[in-house]
Amino acid sequence: MYRRIRDLREDHDLKQRQLAEFLNCSQQVYSNYELGQRDIPTDVLIRLSDFYKVSVDYLLGLTANPKRNK
């Protein structure tokens, strides 16, 4: 899961600081999410899912398909 959020961020040419601002957290907290040093709260997973337009299951590594079910 942690690798996926980093890969998505890098694929969108974003900095950790930019995602941290979007999520209303510090850059250090966001960095800890990417490194797996801090669990990602459900509300943050949902916001990331909406931001990247991928499923939460994809972010969690439960599927390789990033598409969301409607």
Order of helices and strands: HHHHH
Indicate the CATH class.
Mainly Alpha
> What class would the helix/strand composition place it in?
mainly alpha
- Rg to the nearest angstrom? 11 Å
Question: In DSSP terms, counting alpha (H) and pi (I) runs of 4 or more, how many helices?
Answer: 5
* Separation, N- and C-terminal Cα atoms: 22 Å
How many domain regions?
Answer: 1
Please tell me the overall pLDDT: 93
The general outline is globular
Uncertain regions spanning at least 5 consecutive residues: none
Written account of the structure:
61% of the residues lie in helices and 0% in strands. By secondary structure, it is mainly alpha-helical. It has one domain (2-60): Orthogonal Bundle (434 Repressor (Amino-terminal Domain)), CATH 1.10.260. The longest helix has 11 residues, at 42-52. It starts with a helix and ends in a 10-residue tail after the last helix.
Question: Secondary structure elements and their pairing?
Answer:
Elements: H1 2-11, H2 16-23, H3 27-35, H4 42-52, H5 56-60
Helix pairs in contact: 2-3
What's the short version?
This protein is an all-alpha fold.
What distinguishing features does this structure have?
70 residues, mainly alpha, 434 Repressor (Amino-terminal Domain), 5 helices
